[in-house]
Amino acid sequence: MGKEKKVLQNNPFDGFIAGCEAQPRTRLTDIKRVNAYNNIINTIGWKRFKWTLPENINLSSDEIERAVCCGAAVVYKVPEKSGSASAGMWVCTPVEWVGVRKADNTADRFITYLPDRDLSLTNEQIKDYVIIKNNFEMSSDYDFTEWTAQMLNETDISELQLIKWSRMTPIAKVESMNDVEKMENVLYRVYMGEPWAVMSDCRKTMTGSPTSRDDTVLRLTDETAIEKMHFLSEFHYELIRRLCNLYNIPFRTTAKSAQNLESELHNTDIFSRMLTDDGLKWREKSIDELSKLLGGECRVEIGDLFKKENEVIENGIKSTEPDNGKAANND
After folding, report:
1. Is the pLDDT assigned to residue 256 strictly greater than 90?
2. Rounded to an integer, what distance in angstroms lies between the CA atom of residue 230 and that of residue 295?
């Protein structure tokens, strides 16, 4: 099947935002949990950059980022005769390039889908438009966020299984089915907190010649396994920390392995700014064209919370730099 046919058959908001190629899930709870993590991660990711558009343009910053994070997006006014419910509205939707890629990683033709997901448009059908790139490769952020959401889901499953299989669940051994009811009655009374319970001819109802508790009780669970829960909990936060490092979000764990020197923290901070600064650079390339298209001044900048974090990083870097002037005066 050719790429163009695949594009026509796939809705980008289904494929990209859910994570390019969504993994099939057999349990509804898994799907809900992955989707919940995806929604949280994506909502945070869409706040990395803030778009300011003319007041008469009803297009939000989150709408733009939701599409641009797919790799590349196109801003345009939906044609009146498109048959779409969004006809006449300004929208921003993901772009799929069709044909041979050029040196700048684009192609002569692209295809995009209308927000109501029932129609597609090519660049020949759109009168005026502006392309916004996520980065030079126009790679999707959703590849990584989907993987993170799935890993967080798997960690939750492991934690749930650990809780279930570390419960103290003794299984009493009996000699015959006739003794099952007797033993169940005794176990129930003990479980309900009665101070004592009596069972006739206890030694005969137990299998063999019991010399220890393990000879009379079958143990399929391991109550000591719950001690390993903190390792899973640390891994959960480690996954979040990886995401935050890429998104330039401050996140410190309490794990001993995460206790770094101040200089190491600054190195991590600088690393975390690389993708955000690169993303801003490629978004800024479209500003002049976008302002002309929308008939007013357009701006894109680092999101407010991320901007504050950058100030903290810069102040921290300055505080570790030697003050040459002060050193000279002291001499």
Report:
1. no
2. 56
